[in-house]
UniProtKB/TrEMBL annotation:
Name assigned to this protein: TetR/AcrR family transcriptional regulator
Keywords linked to the UniProt accession: DNA-binding, Repressor, Transcription, Transcription regulation
GO molecular function, one term: DNA binding
All residue ranges annotated as the HTH tetR-type domain in the record: 2-62
Residues in the signal sequence: none
Amino acid sequence: MSETTEDIMSATYRALCAHGFADLTMQRIADETDRSKASLHYHYDTKEELLRAFLDYLLDDFESRLACEAADPDERLDTFVEAVFGPAEADDDGDFAVALLEIKARAPFSEPFRDRLVALDARMRETVAAAVRDGIEAGRYAEVDPDDVARFVVTAINGSHVREVALDESPAEARRLVEAYLDRTLDRRSEPEVPV
């Protein structure tokens, strides 16, 4: 990613945190960087085009945080949980969580937004399901439907995002519940079960 693109994406993040989605303008994004509004329009014709690029940027960033080449399914699930909740816990003021929820609320009316959110959801579910499948095959997890586990975990994460924004609930509580659900449902074992 070019330095210019990185600068614009960072400025978009800051502007979303400061103003929210509804009050976001190209000028407010420009104000968060040393670039002019005209410079932003040189790279992105419209605010919507810039926001689509921003969602792609977030997806790429999230996928890089999910990247875990470990064979150990527990390590991959732990990496996933940290990728989801670690940044949320670091965003103490919650401004970005609010802006992201505003973007999600626009998805029914914006196919490009919806497509990017669908891709993110699919990536999250596949990450969880693949780790669960591998844990089952290694005899470390109970026999469960990996896709059901993944759907439940991602649904809980999405619900926790709404609770964080609407009810001011800490993401740490959702993290604790997701981790407990995984431990209980998967009956995680450090060693494979040996048939007697």
